[in-house]
From TrEMBL:
Stored InterPro entries: HAD-like_sf, HAD_hydro_PyrdxlP_Pase-like, HAD_sf, Pase_PHOSPHO-typ
Protein name: Probable phosphatase phospho2
Residues the record lists as binding Mg(2+): 14, 16, 184
Coiled-coil stretches noted in the UniProt entry, renumbered to this chain: none
The gene coding this protein: LOC105230402
Lineage: Eukaryota, Metazoa, Ecdysozoa, Arthropoda, Hexapoda
A Pfam family of this chain: Put_Phosphatase
Protein family (similarity comment): Belongs to the HAD-like hydrolase superfamily. PHOSPHO family.
Organism: Bactrocera dorsalis (Oriental fruit fly)
């Protein structure tokens, strides 16, 4: 009997509040006294990158080194059992899962967190805003893109990154029978609009992505199956049940 190559699936994760139990930016902002915190309205006016760099400047002025900030982010607890979930799928042979991260966070923080939770080898690629330590032992972040998507911030459109990645992999001879997107935030809505009917969106229960899909699913024709999850173990159970029946939505 001749066996073909194993089926391949692409598993995409957001970072903040999808892998981590809290938002990294909020954690850093709350280190400052209220009067020194950059106002959240500034993030809307000036953009996320300018907001983050202002935050990093204030944190350095308050005495926080890059080492301290990185240690704090790396130590954020994961969403319950999500680490086990990733390791389980990474070790799968048939189907084979390629696991990537697309996040509007920063490269240093994501890499530090993955290393601290022994997940570095599980992740094939990371798409996020480049960040670095500056000579004064502070931190800076740069925009990954110049996006003009009305559903995304100007520094990063997750839909375009997903499409670009799929095109690149196809040119390498890799096609995915399923794309599975695990996320929570409002800006995670954009890539769901280009996903196929046989794909799966895993929206964290009670978060903004679930609310956005509930409001706009019919109007914007979100085609993939939508699953609501809270823990890694629960997510694994949902996926195992859903992969044989992908025509019924839970929303």
């Amino acid at each position: 009997m001749v066996f073909g190559p194993p089926k391949r699936r692409l598993l995409i994760f957001d970072f903040d509040e999808t892998l981590t139990s809290m938002d990294s930016t909020s954690l850093l902002r709350d280190l400052l006294p209220v009067y020194r915190r950059p106002k959240e309205i500034n993030e809307l006016k000036e953009g996320r990158i300018a907001y983050l760099n202002t935050l990093f400047t204030e944190l350095r002025a308050a005495g926080y080194s890059s080492t301290e900030l990185r240690r704090l982010i790396a130590a954020i607890p994961p969403v319950p059992s999500i680490v086990d979930f990733i390791k389980h799928l990474h070790e799968s042979c048939d189907p084979k899962y390629d696991i990537i991260i697309i996040s509007d966070c920063s490269s240093i923080f994501i890499k530090d967190w993955l290393a601290n939770h022994q997940l570095t080898e599980c992740i094939k690629e990371i798409f996020t805003n480049p960040s670095f330590v500056v000579s004064s032992d502070g931190m800076r972040v740069e925009a990954l893109q110049r996006a003009k998507c009305p559903l995304s911030p100007p520094n990063l459109c997750k839909r375009s990154l997903l499409e670009r990645y799929l095109t690149k992999r196809q040119a390498m001879g890799v096609t995915y029978e399923r794309v599975i997107f695990v996320a929570d935030g409002v800006h995670d809505y954009c890539p769901t609009l280009v996903m196929r009917r046989d794909d799966i969106v895993c929206a964290r229960k009670g978060k903004d992505l679930e609310k956005k899909i509930r409001c706009y699913r019919r109007k914007c024709k979100v085609r993939p199956l939508v699953l609501l999850w809270s823990t890694g173990h629960g997510l694994l159970t949902l996926l195992e049940s859903a992969l044989d029946c992908v025509t019924i939505s839970s929303i």
